[in-house]
Amino acid sequence: MLAELASGGMGRVYLARSRGGRTVAVKTLLTSDDGIVAPEDRRRFAREAALAQRVQGPFTAGIVAADAEARVPWIATEYIPAPSLRDLVVSQGPLPAEALPWIAAGTAEALVGIHAAGLVHRDVKPSNILLPGDGPRVIDFGISQAADLTRTGTALGTIPFAAPEQARGEPTTPASDVFSLGATFFFLVTGRSPYRGMGDGTAMEQLLRAAEADLDLSGLPDGARELVLPCLATAPAARPTPSALLALIEPVLAARPWAHGAADWLPDGWSDAIERHRRRRTEEADAAQRRFDPEGATARTPPAAPARTRRLPRPAPVRQRRRTGPLLGVAAVALLAGGGIVYLLNGRGETPEPVRQDLRLALVEQAEAGACTDRLAPPTFYDEKGATCYRISTRDGDRMSVKQLKQVRTEFDTQFSVLVTFHDEDGRRFTALTEKAAGRQAPQNQIAIVLGDRLISAPSVTAAIPGNEIQISGDFTRNEADALVEELGG
Q1: CB–CB of 133/279 below 8 Å?
Q2: β-bridge mates for residue 401, sequence order
Q3: Contact status, residue 473 vs residue 317, Cβ threshold 8 Å
Q4: Residue range 281-302: mean pLDDT, rounded
Q5: How far apart are CA 38 and CA 36, in angstroms?
Q6: What is the number of other CB atoms lying within 10 angstroms of the CB of residue 174?
Q7: pLDDT recorded at residue 297
Q8: Which of 62, 230, 266, 379 could make an S-S bridge to 270, C-beta 3.0–4.6 Å?
Q9: Domain layout of the chain by residue ranges
Q10: By C-alpha distance, which of 384, 413, 394 is closest to 157?
Q11: Distance between CA atoms of residues 237 and 332, nearest Å
């Protein structure tokens, strides 16, 4: 076991390596304080492992090993150091329609394998599809079920991507997965759910729109219509099978026999983001391995911090997502907070005092690759992760400061995240800023998020973001999410 990747109310996920050197993700089930696993929890975990082991194919994350009867039940799956489709759309903007067939082919083939194993996935969505350079991987079979079972009265899945019959609590079938795949394709090329008004109103109101198949397909590029529209047919019987989708896509792939991977199909920004993610995750795994290697180099442990010094970890960059609605383009809304409180030692070197830093959100005016130089007039900020220098606008209507959040707290769905709520006036100002950004061309459709003199992120915006609530995530562990909440004033 090398490092903790995530944890939640039911279990934890660890990065690990086998004795032979294979890197895997190990999902474990939490035990009680006395080390006991509830029988029902163990049965559910065993069922998930058994179902996942039935799936074979190049476009799913394979099960390496599992033991549901162990004192701490666990499942080890292939570790895929790649961003999700959701993350890529949020950080890079919608996918050009001409690049869709490559991703569609891999995901359709994954569904062929899942359905051939007698399963229905029931939660196909952008965050459950990872995209390494050699093709997509469908993951997370946590709510899958055998296709020959009847299950009614329960609407599972994620509302913006669930089939209408699924939202109504009717039996889910392989055709339900096809609808969700079509909704995912729609999101890839437009940046939103195909349902009308997702993200507006309560979760129940949104569920009702999905149950009534209230679709809004405006903005779908012509080049994607032939592939997407049949999948979104209201009647399950009218949707194509995954095999039929593959047959539709095959001539497109055959016309480009030299194109095999992300660099051949995707925009430069997408393929670069995939490679950066792979390199970063691989380096993190190697560094974790060295910490545990008995033959590895050792170093003196640094002295402990003074007992009364409070140190908060710098939060990892995070990506915005709506709690129940579609992703509308702003990623890494990381420190929309009560002034970005940090703690520093006072002049007496004893009790830490909170020091309020200036938090700003501003439209990007210019962006250039490389470190900031005299080429761009100030104010400029450097994005170390993206190796880009940004010049931000100084006009009053192009920027805002956030003095205090209405609420901030840690949440867990499939991963830990931080839910932040603006006060009404700040929410309106932020919506206006995102609306203004969405009407501009790249890179001026980006919003720089700055804390003090540090650039947190410069996400692209594809549509205005209404409402006062934003859910942010960043591959957090529980401790990291809690620390961010505390830093934000929660």
Answers
A1: no
A2: 360
A3: no
A4: 69
A5: 6
A6: 20
A7: 58
A8: 266
A9: 3-78, 85-268, 319-487
A10: 413
A11: 40
Give per-residue pLDDT as tens, 396-410. 888 888 878 788 787
Q: Which of 414, 333, 479, 337 is nearest to 128 (CA)?
A: 414
* Termini Cα distance of the chain: 32
From its phi and psi, is residue 127 left (phi > 0), alpha (psi between -120 and 50) or beta? Answer: alpha
What's the CATH superfamily of 85-268?
Answer: Transferase(Phosphotransferase) domain 1 (1.10.510.10)
Question: What pLDDT shows up at residue 373?
Answer: 74
Lowest mean pLDDT among 4-13, 39-48, 201-210, 381-390: 4-13
pLDDT at 384: 65
In which element (H, E) is residue 318 found?
none
Residue 480: per-residue pLDDT: 66
CA triple 382-320-482, angle to 5 deg: 90
Q: At residue 318, does pLDDT exceed 60?
A: no
Residues 353/310, Cβ–Cβ less than 8 Å: no
Structure tokens at 357: 């830093």
153: left (phi over 0), alpha (psi -120 to 50) or beta: left
CA 192 – CA 268 distance, rounded (Å): 22
- Domain 319-487: give its CATH architecture: 2-Layer Sandwich (3.30)
Catalytic residue among 33, 41, 67, 123: 123
* 3-class state of residue 470 by DSSP: strand
**Could you report the per-residue pLDDT of 429-451, keeping only the tens digit for each?**
888 888 898 888 888 888 887 76
Tokens of 27: 């999902």
What radius of gyration do the chain's Cα atoms show? Answer: 23
Task: Quote the strand ranges of 143-301, DSSP E.
Answer: 145-146
The closest of 149, 116, 148, 123 to 138, measured between CA atoms, is: 123
The whole-number pLDDT of residue 341 equals: 31
Average pLDDT over residues 112-121: 88
User: Quick check: is 123 catalytic?
Assistant: yes
Confirm or reject CATH 3.30.200.20 for domain 3-78, answering yes or no: yes
Cα pseudo-dihedral 92, 135, 161, 44, rounded to 10: -130
pLDDT category of residue 349 using cuts at 50, 70 and 90: very low
Average pLDDT over every residue of 215-242: 96
DSSP string, 168-184: TTPPP-HHHHHHHHHHH
